[in-house]
Amino acid sequence: MQTNKTIPTICSILTMLSLAGSAFAQGNDFFSGGSQAAPTGGTPIDRPPGVAAAEQQALKAGNTDLTSDEKRMQRKYKANMRSASDLVAKAEKMIKDGEKRNDKKTIKKGMVLKQIAEKNVNQLKENNPLPDGK
Known about the structure:
This protein is mostly helical. It contains four helices and no strands.
């Protein structure tokens, strides 16, 4: 007979503990929308337009500390620019060699290669990650 009384008692104790636990969990605002602190930068909606423009200029002017990811992207950009420039030079050489030998096939290949390489150079210049625009 004692098991009949212990099961409801255990259930009531567990219920009270679960309710008491939720009262103590109110200090963590990670998931609740209670008191949200604005991020330090804020969103562009939170800040006036002049402040956002001033922050961008300050970042461009005094940006001497680059992250490793920014440095990696700059190295990658320089390597891609060098490769595209070398490809343009190779294509021009192919065109000249084709003209000397009267080889229309080589001239055509050189022209296609040059168009592709110049397109790559222009795309790289548009998406330049370097701060000084080199």
